[in-house]
UniProtKB/TrEMBL annotation:
Belongs to the arginase family. It comes from Haloterrigena alkaliphila. GO terms for biological process: arginine metabolic process; urea cycle. Residues 39-68 are annotated as: Disordered. It catalyses: L-arginine + H2O = urea + L-ornithine. It holds the Pfam family Arginase. GO terms for molecular function: arginase activity; manganese ion binding. The lineage of its organism: Archaea, Methanobacteriati, Methanobacteriota, Stenosarchaea group, Halobacteria. The keyword Cytoplasm does not apply. InterPro entries: Arginase, Ureohydrolase, Ureohydrolase_dom_sf, Ureohydrolase_Mn_BS. Coiled coil: none annotated. One of its GO terms (cellular component) is cytoplasm. The gene is rocF. Its EC number is 3.5.3.1. This is Arginase. Its cofactor is Mn(2+).
Amino acid sequence: MSKTVRIIGAPMDLGADRRGVDMGPSAIRYAELADRLSDSGVDPVDAGDLSIPRAEERDPDASQPSEGTAKFLREVEDVCTRLSDRVAATLEDGEFPLVLGGDHSVAIGSMHGAARAADLGAVWFDAHADLNTPETSPSGNVHGMPLAAALGRGAFGEMPWAHAPRVREESIAYVGLRSIDDRERELLRESEMTAYTMADIDERGMTAVVADALDVATDGTDGVHVSLDLDWVDPRTAPGVGTPVRGGVTYREAHAALETVSERHEADDVVRSMDVVEVNPILDEGNETATIAAELTASAFGKRIL
Ligand SMILES: NC(=[NH2+])NCCC[C@H](N)C(=O)O
Ligand SMILES: [Mn+2]
Ligand SMILES: [Mn+2]
């Protein structure tokens, strides 16, 4: 009885400044995601891509953030509302939703969909905290806001398409943080979220940290959302991302992390949904970042060396 994994492409680039991240789903598919998933022992089914408004058809005013706003918020709402429906329908059909971004704003839709019928924890593999609100964001880019959106912080509290009330702070664990805005740092310190930074990984090793992150995300929840932002990996290894930060996790650490996730999943069936985001083929070298994205996803679904 092998699990069906439904691949949902979300070629969103409305949440980030650097163009090209909309090609992420194609690049990850081209890197043989489906074959790699089959080799891992699951059945991939590709549901194609959501349609996203092209840059040329967008309201130019929507890209201009004024203070206390987020760029393209109306368009992001439209895409994430549709994505949430898709993710919820996938789970209702008994399949596993695997969302390919696109920039990280797609996680608003995937978490919202996955948390409709479950209390949802999250493990957030990212260099960034993605905890800005429209009020605190230094950039106005929604890809820096998905966790704040799911938690209903700031203006997101009035946005039912974003706020997922069954996602609670104490069930969220970050792994690999190394770039946090000042306001995010304040929010994080005051919050009940658990943040494992690169320093924790240096000190304790990746597998111990991820095991603890999974404990946090599974405690008192019905399932875990895994969000994999490729800028989590060191930019020398994964250069095709829009907001690279040096000092990231190594190739081996990254695999060890996702293997730890899959081991827990095999034992306890804990992972409910996943997104793989921020692959930007324009900035990549020879599709290396998309290939790593596909490999790490395969590790998350049980691919082993031996
Ligand atoms: N998903 C990402 N790559 N997020 C980067 C966010 C960068 C910065 N913190 C911002 O809010 O603009
Ligand atoms: Mn990031
Ligand atoms: Mn991110």
